[in-house]
Amino acid sequence: MKKAIVLYSGGLDSTTCVAIARAAGYEVYGLSFSYGQRHSIELECAKKFAPQLGIAKHLILDVDMRQIGGSALTADIAVPENRPIDDEIPITYVPARNTVFLAYALAWAEAMQSFDIYIGVNAVDYSGYPDCRPEFIQAFTQMANLATKAAVEKQGRYTVHTPLMHMSKAQIIHTGTQLGIDYALTHSCYAPDSQGRACGVCDSCVLRLKGFREAGMQDPVTYTTVSGE
């Protein structure tokens, strides 16, 4: 069985990626990061449910991006509420986060003799982050095949799989449900309360709730507020 490194945050998209990679016949190695994110409950979901999702090994790396700051997710900056989802890059963007995460995934893949990396980036229902675009993934893949011993010695070529790139959130939810994902095992909120309940008004909650509405399904997680109600 081929091995794949899946960037697994504990959120809806990355959990769906785990299911997709497993359905494609890969043995999944989940990679999560404790990067100083204010929504650490997402990471707690990843720790708790990785075995249930069939992840062969779950690695959590400490990369403290609070020391860098520049984001509402890692610094003392308010998370926007009920923000119109437009082309503006929001303050929840974490500087170079996906570049950093993919670099670690590439390192682990090379050490594991794997040439497949999965990441749940999306360019349809998303918050406008520049490191979620197809152009970025293409550029990173090119770099990966130039920067690694395994690729230079022609042991294989790296592929960064982005199965959710052109799906709507509703399509992602339908796909995961068909693959047996229980979305109660996920958490997406940027600003959960002390009890771990989702806020319902941050970008991530708004997009998630929109996806469930369009999918004709009920989101199983608990919210303190539901946007638009």
General description of the model:
With 229 residues, the chain is of the alpha/beta class. The protein has a single domain (3-182), classed as Rossmann fold (3-Layer(aba) Sandwich). Helices cover 34% and strands 11% of the residues. It contains seven helices and five strands; from the N terminus they run E-H-E-H-E-H-E-H-H-E-H-H. The protein has helices at residues 12-23, 41-49, 97-112, 134-147, 149-152, 169-178, 203-215, and strands spanning 3-7, 27-34, 57-62, 116-118, 159-161. A five-stranded parallel β-sheet has the order 3-2-1-4-5, sandwiched between helices. Helix 1 crosses helix 6 and helix 6 packs across helix 7. It starts with a strand and ends in a 14-residue tail after the last helix. The mean pLDDT is 93.
Brief sketch in words of this structure:
With 229 residues, the protein is α/β, with parallel strands linked by helices. 34% of the residues lie in helices and 11% in strands.
Helix/strand class = alpha/beta
Fourth CATH level, the homologous superfamily: HUPs
The CATH level-2 architecture is identified as: 3-Layer(aba) Sandwich
Strand content: 5-15%
Helix content: 25-40%
Which stretches of 5+ consecutive residues score pLDDT under 50?
none
Mean pLDDT: 93
The termini sit apart by 47 Å
Q: Could you name the CATH class? A: Alpha Beta
Largest sheet: 5 strands, parallel
Chain-wise SSE layout:
Layout: E1 3-7, H1 12-23, E2 27-34, H2 41-49, E3 57-62, H3 97-112, E4 116-118, H4 134-147, H5 149-152, E5 159-161, H6 169-178, H7 203-215
Parallel strand pairs: 1-2, 1-4, 2-3, 4-5
